[in-house]
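COURSE: Structural Biology Practicum
ASSIGNMENT: Worksheet 4, Part C
STUDENT ID: 0417
INSTRUCTIONS: Below are two proteins. For each, the amino acid sequence is given first, followed by its structure token string. Answer the questions at the end about the second protein only.

PROTEIN I
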Amino acid sequence: MSNLNVSVSPDASMPPVPAAPLPVLRVPMLDRNRLLFAYEIMFHREPDDEQTLLPRVLSTITDGALTRLVRGNRTFLNIPAELLPEDFDALLHQPRLGVLLQPQVATDPALMKRLQQMAQRGCQLMLDASDVDLDGSLAIAALLQIVQFVRLDASLMTPEALQARAEQLNSRGIWVVAGEVNDHTTYQRCLDLPLHAIQGRYLLTPRLEAVPVLTANRLSMLRLMRALQEANQGPVELGNIIRDDAVLSYKLLSCVNSAYFALPRQLKSVQQAAIFFGVTRMRNWIDTMSLCGMDDRPPELLRAALIRAHMCEKLAVGMPNGSREMAFTVGLFSLLDTLMCAPMEFLLTHLRLMPEISQALTDRSGPFAPLLEQILAWEAGKLTSEHAQPQRIQRMATIYLEATQWADQVYAQADGKQSN
């Protein structure tokens, strides 16, 4: 399976450069129903690798790796427009693949001509307008003639300005995305505006209530998770815990028996699966399937929790025995407060987690805290050469791409369909 590994050689007669993962981050934009509208693909870039970025990006497009990363959904590449190729057929052959543009492209006549050609041939273009005065110049006016989407920066605009600008653009037939929506107050305001999508850290931020109230389903889920943490459990005990939940058992076995995992034989019961994988790993699987059953939460939030879980587990390689399974729990539960809409400390009173796990989740201390901090830095795009060696960035790129592929597959199995 391709993991966005690319090989670029300046001379066809020379042996290819060993394949290396292209460091990327996919950031979702959600519609008002909290379903995926589009992905933004951000590329890790260093000042001296601008010239190698484009061929590497094009390689991921032509070999289908990028399509697999975004599952064929509408996607905007966040790359400098100056790097767009003269021959842009690779983009045109991917009708749901577009480019995110910065306002300064409007002042480059040659680049504007190329963008006009791309738009005429069906390439999707989004202007990242931030708080730029869209009425301030003829150049910007010309750019608005060729883009189909505009993203506005909600963190830089007053609510009144954001509403007026969204209404203005909508009246011109341009679809509007609100970006940098990083808190739930702003998010709620955005729901009343003529927007096609909303993007920002609000998705991963808990919406805390003054008095946390857990629904019966969520209390039941916490009781299940607590029972899974009881000591001295074997395969039979695990099977008994979820014996009466036919849906959970079915999803669990369907997932582990899927072609993606290519097991040597089909596992026919939870007890068999626990023997095959081990009790600790099966607890992780049951927790995973339980969270994926939260159909009132955005699918992209659930995928984010799965990605964190897999990344944490991979980063724990080399730690003492049993650490990988605990690291998985840290990553999976790191968004538990967001999923449950309740403070983490409150939720942990309903669980019996190992102290090392609780410490990482509450005050970012203990042996697993550095792993989670690395993942949060990667998500925020802050893991750069100023803070990390290139080898570490490449390792994180590999782990992230593996994690997205794993999370997409597991969520699709749990959700019961191969879709958003």
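PROTEIN II
(use this one for the questions)
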Amino acid sequence: MKHLPFATLGFVATFVGVTTFFSSTLFADNAEGEKSRLASLAKFTRVLATIEKHYVDDITIDEIVNKAISGLLTNLDAHSGYLDEKHFKDLKVQTEGEFGGLGITVGQRDGALTVIAPMEGTPADKAGVKAGDIIIKINLQSTLNMTIDEAVNLMRGKPKTKIELTLVREGQSKPLIVPIVRDIIKIESVYSRMIENENILYVRVVSFDKNIVADVDSALKKHKNVQGIVLDLRNNPGGLLNQAVGLVDLFVDEGVIVSQKGRVESENSEYKATKGGVGLKMPLVVLVNGGSASASEIVSGALQDYKRAVVIGEKTFGKGSVQAILPVVDNEAMRLTIARYYLPSGRTIQAEGVVPDIIVYPGDVPTKETEQGIKEKDLKKHLESELKKTDDANITTNEKGKDKAKIKDKEPLKEDKTIVSQENLFKDMQLKSAVDAIKILSIKK
């Protein structure tokens, strides 16, 4: 017992020695880190001074610093960027005002300016721009080494003004030149229709604006007794996070829908489902493709993780990072990636995308016609063509000097906006597959 105090003292002395060593090491590490930091800043300052003194053109230190900041942020990732006074003002116009545009969302993929998706019904969509197209020129200006902000600024402009995009498209041997006329972008973000001859509700979400959840909720309540739902998120470039969370919440009643994680703890958060969704019991299929990004990937990925929906189509774009607009000085800011989104299973969307449960490529549904049917159809077309020639010849011969007879074309049938016709269904292999999956899920249920 007499030796106990000495033993304790020895333990304390050893502990103090370890603590002292640890503190010294930590201090040394901090000192080394600070030394490295100062050396790096000194190197950066030398580079700025050298450019200011020796660069071939007269350039101010302010211009040099702005270019340095822009280059730094651009090289961090595809979505970070520097907003000088002009770009910051343009951003405010985009988010607060009315402007003329094309109606496409773009991103950087492998260093190329890539169309994430054209918005339905917009000038770009009507001109034939497709998801996955690579924009190599805007008017005559090359997009190589161009930032997303610079590209967006070039594409935006006064309504009714013309612009020309040069596109590289998979499967095309030559670049495509697509002329487009800018316009005010107004889109119907949600519309719902019944599939003709099927008790299945088709819900199309074009982009995630502030009314998505309310509009989808209204459509579900209006069609409570349907056999199932097809949620179409193809070419949906994303939008508001809270609307993506709210949409999943209509079909899931518990668990984390998506989490946001970054280096700063205050940026971390979880978004959870609540009870009471109106679409909890209905069989559900989600359609996606390479133009489905961001919020669309959160919705499809979360529903897939919870096995609440069958996801059909093609792999999504892979945009799962969070950007914040952070001030630099008055009227200047930076767009900085501060976190990434993670799905309920813990997987990330960023650069990975969501892989569908069933891969289905776009195109018509193949149909088998009898040989006689094909011959009869071709013969009929041929005879109609020949009859037209004789009619035209008679008009030229017998009505010479007079007005040619005018044949009034039969007015086209107006599209019924309450249904998806069987004809349109068979022109969309992905949608047809979704309808077939609903039927299988209903039998299983």
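ANSWER KEY EXCERPT:
Q1: The first strand starts at residue 81 and ends at 83.
Q2: The chain is about 40% helix and 20% strand.
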